[in-house]
Amino acid sequence: MAVHSPPTSPAAGSTGGTQHRARFAVTGWVQGILGAIATFLGAFILLGGDEQSVGLGGQASWQVSEIDPVWGVGLLTGGVLVLLFTLVRALRAPDVPTAPVAEPHGGWSDVAAHAGIFLAVNAFLWVQDIALGDGLNYAYWVTIPWGIGLAVHALTQYTSTHRSPVASR
After folding, report:
1. Maximum Cα interatomic distance, the chain, rounded to a whole number of Å
2. Which of 44, 76, 119, 150 is the most exposed, having the fewest neighbouring CB atoms within 10 Å of its CB?
3. Residue 55, strand partner residues
4. Domain end position, chosen among 39, 58, 92
5. So what's the pLDDT on residue 48?
């Protein structure tokens, strides 16, 4: 039984560089999101009124007047530094061409992945919303529009796979 390996010529593209680029894209997004959250929270703690609260709601929230301003300065400074680091890293990242994909993704496997992520994230949000003890406050604001998007995704896939041959000419 022969084992075939993909070509490793420079013209075929560098998979190591592509993996590095993809890894940077994920960590870059995570760093950017965390930096933005820290910057927002720091600014909110420093600039928010004493009556404002920050947190998840219910027992998991604090009045801004109860939080030491040192936390606000630390979050704001740290968030801005993380955002700057992410920006510099993105600008200095080598521009590596992506390798061609052997099989295109798509179809019902993408719809199934979308549905699985939808179920996992929304289950967590609903459990969290109910566990805070105030009843339902926000989970449906995520579930409804995302559910519409999932339905459109499934409908689009359904119509693309059930097109009549005459209509596709």
Report:
1. 73
2. 119
3. 61
4. 92
5. 83
111 CB-contact burial (10 Å; exposed 0-12 / middle 13-18 / buried 19+) = middle
Burial of 86 by CB count in 10 Å (0-12 exposed, 13-18 middle, 19+ buried)?
buried
Structural domain boundaries enclosing 116: 108-161
> How far is it, in rounded angstroms, from Cα 133 to Cα 61?
13
Measured between alpha carbons, how far is residue 152 from residues 110, 112, 118, 138, 157 in Å? 13, 13, 13, 23, 8
**What average pLDDT does the segment 39-60 reach?**
81
DSSP state of 165: T
- Tell me, what DSSP letter sits at residue 101? P
Rounded-to-integer distance, Cα 117 and Cα 142, Å: 13
pTM: 0.47
Q: Which of 92, 127, 147 is the last residue of a domain?
A: 92
Q: What is the pLDDT of residue 81?
A: 94
Position 59: which residue type? Q
Number of domains in the chain: 2
What is the tens place of the pLDDT at every residue in 59-102?
777 888 888 889 889 999 999 999 899 888 878 776 655 555 55
Is residue 128 scored above 70 in pLDDT?
yes
